[in-house]
Design goal:
Elements lengths: L17 H12 L9 E11 L3 E11 L12 E10 L9 E6 L15 H17 L1
Antiparallel strand pairs: 1-2, 2-3, 3-4
Length: 133
């Protein structure tokens, strides 16, 4: 079966706050099709001032703790950027994009289907690296 690409209604620039941005990211990732065993936490990292926009950087850290290993051996991070234009009207929705740790590919909500396998691959590669060291 083909999965549908899900998105949310993103906030407008004039209604944006750092806290609201984090809430919206949480709302968006709740649309992802990931197994219930995955847990995550999100945090605001920094604000970046650019000539034509402001960018707000967030990180969502994912792991699969278990009864036997409540502290996971490795985690996978997804980095979000919420960008507010200084040129577009303040009533325009914010621009949002995200990247996965160890990848430069930029994903946009509503345009890309998130895959749980991406998180698994990051964690597996970290565990392999730790075992080699």
């Amino acid at each position: 079966t083909k999965s549908t690409i899900k998105n949310i209604q993103w906030i407008t620039g004039n209604n944006f706050t750092v806290e609201r941005g984090q809430q919206q990211i949480e709302e968006y990732i709740s649309t992802w099709d990931v197994h219930i065993s995955w847990l995550h936490c999100s945090e605001f990292l920094q604000e970046e001032e650019l000539e034509h926009s402001k960018r707000y950087h967030y990180r969502v850290c994912w792991s699969v703790p278990t009864r036997r290993k409540p502290i996971p051996r490795a985690t996978a991070s997804v980095y979000f950027v919420i960008e507010i234009s200084k040129i577009k009207p303040a009533t325009s929705p914010v621009e949002v994009f995200f990247t996965l740790e160890s990848s430069r590919l930029i994903h946009r909500p509503g345009q890309h289907l998130f895959r749980e396998k991406w998180l698994k691959d990051i964690i597996e590669s970290k565990i392999i690296l730790m075992e080699r060291l």
